[in-house]
Amino acid sequence: MPAEIVDIDVAEARRRIDAGARLFDVREQGEWDEVHAPEATLVPMSEVVARWKEIDGGDEPAIIVCHSGGRSARVVAALEQSGVPAVNLVGGMVAWEQSGAPVVRDAQGEPRHEH
Predict the structure, then answer these.
(1) CA 20 to 30 Å from 64, out of 1, 75, 79, 90?
(2) Which residues share a beta bridge with 87?
(3) Radius of gyration of the chain measured on its C-alpha atoms
(4) Element holding 23 (H helix, E strand)
(5) Helix (H, G, I), strand (E, B), or coil: what is residue 111?
(6) How far apart are CA 79 and CA 44, in angstroms?
């Protein structure tokens, strides 16, 4: 029986992160280098099977993010089936950025400032 996927929006994700939930980014390294949430931990989808035990949300389910929400939904389903509580960040990093949430850009981890 497929796991029930719980979707949350950026506002709810930020509330949960502030309350201690962990954010995991399942995009690949190049996407991460381009832009990511400062609170996120990179666990590429290609490594989730080997590293799934690292994804622990603590007191709250882990929040899983990708570019737009498709890969993260698949990862959430797999984690839930493995007994790891997780939720999907709807809209992924696209929604995160559009909401004005903080981001880190480029491979050096330095934020770019638009002038």
Answers:
(1) 1
(2) 63
(3) 13
(4) strand 23-25
(5) coil
(6) 14
The DSSP secondary structure of 28-95, one letter per residue, reads: -HHHHHHEE-TTEEE--GGGHHHHGGG---TTSPEEEE-SSSHHHHHHHHHHHHTT--EEEETTHHHH
Q: Is the pTM of this model over 0.70?
A: yes
Q: Which residue has the tokens 């007994």?
A: 83
pLDDT of residue 115: 35
| Total residue count of the chain as it appears in this document | 115
Structure tokens at 22: 């962990």
Cα separation of 28 and 12, whole Å? 24
Listed residue (19, 59, 21) closest to 40, CA to CA: 21
